[in-house]
Design a protein that fits this description.
Elements (H helix, E strand, L loop, with lengths): L1 H39 L9 H23 L7 H13 L4 H15 L5 H11 L4 H15 L7 H14 L3 H33 L9 H11 L8 H14 L2 H7 L6 H20 L1
Helix pairs in contact: 2-4, 2-5, 2-6, 5-7, 6-7, 6-8, 8-9, 9-12, 10-12, 11-12
């Protein structure tokens, strides 16, 4: 704003209306460049003390596990599968000792009957209002918890829809993320199954059977949020956008706890695998 204003004023002083137009344009370029540099350092967060960043990371950590616990309890009781999924998630993050106890405490707090999902998610949303990618990753983690047994129940879906709304996302975007994670889950499973079959056939001295390219291509496209018929340009555009949204270093600089870098890394790896598959198919 200030670049355009000052550019217009000085341009008018030196070149009347033609100078004002040129000054406005140059000021616009200056504002745009300044805003990009500002965002690269994390907006106002770039000027905050380290304690503020740690507070955001602590909030992300506690909110994430408490909401996970609440979603796990949405069917009336927490199943053994949900407990195992939460435990595996903690192990994936490398949580041990006091940190693991803190995660378990937050998960237990989320199961409490007096836990306010609206208050917890609204507080999170206010703290990360300018961090769209972090809010989206938070929702994706909750979808992952609900999907740990291979499907999302009606109760879980209704609760996830509420969480999405409190985070500021439209219902259409929530359904898009839900569909994309399901495709990601199925694509990952089919890739693992394909590798297992390939190893088994090699050990038996047989040639591996050809993969079902039509089925896997559809899944790979869905991982990128695309449907059948997407062209090469659309695939590359979707891939770059998703990789940018899930870049671990960028997310950590914005408030993602370092322990959760593994979550972002795995998302990036799934996106990368789907893209590489599509390039070869």
């Amino acid at each position: 704003m200030w670049g355009k204003l000052l550019g217009t004023i000085f341009g008018f002083l030196f070149g009347r209306w033609l100078g004002a137009i040129l000054g406005f344009y140059l000021g616009h370029l200056f504002d745009k460049s300044l805003r990009q540099d500002f965002d690269k350092v994390g907006g106002f967060q770039g000027f905050m003390k380290g304690e503020d960043l740690h507070e955001r990371q602590a909030l992300f950590f506690s909110s994430c596990f408490s909401v996970m616990g609440h979603i796990a309890k949405s069917n009336g009781r927490v199943s053994e599968i949900h407990i195992q999924a939460a435990s595996a998630f903690m192990s994936e993050m490398g949580l041990q000792g006091e940190e693991r106890k803190e995660a378990q405490h937050a998960f237990t707090a989320g199961k409490s009957s007096d836990f306010s999902i609206k208050e917890a998610v609204t507080d999170f949303k206010e703290a990360f209002a300018r961090r769209y990618d972090l809010r989206q990753l938070f929702l994706e983690i909750q979808i992952q918890m609900a999907f740990c047994d291979g499907h999302v129940s009606d109760a879980e879906k209704a609760l996830l829809k509420q969480v999405s709304k409190y985070l500021g996302f439209a219902e259409t975007h929530f359904l898009f993320l839900l569909k994309r994670y399901q495709a990601e889950f199925e694509f990952r499973r089919s890739q693992a199954s394909g590798r297992s079959q390939h190893q088994h056939q090699q050990q038996g001295g047989r040639q591996p059977a050809p993969q079902d390219n039509g089925l896997n291509r559809a899944k790979a496209l869905a991982v990128l949020g695309l449907s059948e018929g997407a062209n090469e340009r659309e695939i590359k555009k979707a891939y770059r956008k998703l990789m940018s949204q899930h870049h671990p270093d960028k997310l950590v600089s914005q408030g993602l706890p370092k322990h959760m870098m593994e979550v972002a890394k795995r998302k990036s790896q799934d996106i990368q695998s789907a893209y590489e598959y599509l390039k070869k198919s």
